[in-house]
Amino acid sequence: MNSVSSIDVAQHTLLVFAVILSAGAITSFIAEKLRIPDIVLFMLAGITLGPAMAGAIDVSATSALNQIILIFGASYILFDGGATLRFSVLKEVWITVVVIATIGVLITAAITGLAAQWILGLPLITALLLGSTIASTDPATLIPVFRQVRIKDRVAQAVMSESALNDAMGAIITVTLLSLAMGSGHFSLGHSLAELVKESGIGILAGAMMGYLAVVFIAHERLGFLQQHLPLVSLLVVVGAYLGAADFHASGFMGVFVAGLFIGNRESFGYRLTHSQQEGLQDFIETTALIMRMFIFILLGSQVNFGLIKEHLWGALAIVLVFMVVARPLTVFLCAGIDRRARWSRNELLFMCWTRETGVIPGALAGLLLGMRVPGAELIASVTFIAILVTIMLQATTTQWVAKKLNLLEEPPQLPAQDAPGQ
């Protein structure tokens, strides 16, 4: 009986996978023809195929399968994003990245939380918990957008790097406020900063170690015995960097991002691959990242709780509006505007104000609060899902238009194969 039940579950899971891949292939083709970010259509496809409409996809947000897809998918997308960045560019913008991903998250959380308290009449601790849940940006959303829309290099790399770093800060603030809301802790600025440094530092160290070892084993003249298994290495690096950091209660997402950064910048360490190896690795990474985007955003769309959204719609929309047009611009101008080394132009700052989609990480934090039955968790979850829907549908689809208006679009560079992004 149990074996039959297990087979049924396995077959149902395969059917769900087939539906997601089929819907993803079709919507990806349509997105390419319409020249809009594919994640937008993936999410719309998920909403259409989810339990509220067609019922073809019904995967619980708290299931092990969903968590595996979210963790590995977001990790691989981050790895892909890290591989596209360049050390030379990051040297110019690292101050902005660090400040906006730490102090900036606090500013965004505080402004959004105070707005939620005023608009919905929430207790202060619940309102701040809401603000901290949606304060971090989402690399799984931003990186694919910048894959499709070519923005001025340093702007794109600053935004992607910020999104990779600020999930740790958002999680730390949320967990700290959660302990206060549950009556099991007290706020300590020093402790919170120490936790941030620890989580980020261990994540960076784990990613650097995995990334460098991978570079040696695939590109070293004598030790490169894995040269013929580059796709396998990319999978092992993602899993190893994430778990290596997570085992020490650090940011696994930071680990995979840094690992990708090391592999993408392997020539800085004196290691090269042949032209065919580079092309093969790039094709595998891009294809795998595309499949992960399909699964993440189609599943995310299928899990939208329309009952919760309807119940809190107008108040949540007001909070998201403050979040987008007040909290984010203030955060950017206060944090990036002081970076004299980067010398950001007004147009660059305005673009960063607009580009801050909410997605996987805030959704996971909202799910955590629901699972722990935190007071006000259902309202927080509904506002989070509305923030995800609004920012992805509105901001992701208008990224290219805004960049064009601000004169920040770049033509695809004609570079030799060994210098192509991600190589």
Notes on the protein architecture:
This protein is mainly alpha-helical and 423 residues long. Helices cover 75% and strands 0% of the residues. The protein is built from 16 helices and no strands. Helix 1 crosses helix 11 (275-302), helix 3 (64-84) packs across helix 11 and helix 7 (153-181) packs across helix 8. The chain is globular.
Uncertain runs: 415-423
SS summary, helix count = 16
Number of structurally distinct domains: 1
What's the CATH class label?
Mainly Alpha
Secondary structure layout:
Elements: H1 2-34, H2 38-49, H3 64-84, H4 87-120, H5 124-133, H6 139-148, H7 153-181, H8 189-219, H9 230-246, H10 252-264, H11 275-302, H12 306-311, H13 313-335, H14 346-354, H15 360-371, H16 377-405
Helix pairs in contact: 1-2, 1-11, 2-11, 3-6, 3-7, 3-9, 3-10, 3-11, 4-5, 4-7, 4-13, 5-7, 5-16, 6-7, 7-8, 7-15, 8-9, 8-10, 9-10, 13-14, 13-16, 15-16
A few lines on this structure:
This protein is mainly alpha-helical. The chain has 16 helices and no strands.
Task: List key phrases describing it.
mainly alpha; 0% strand; 423 residues; Na+/H+ antiporter like fold
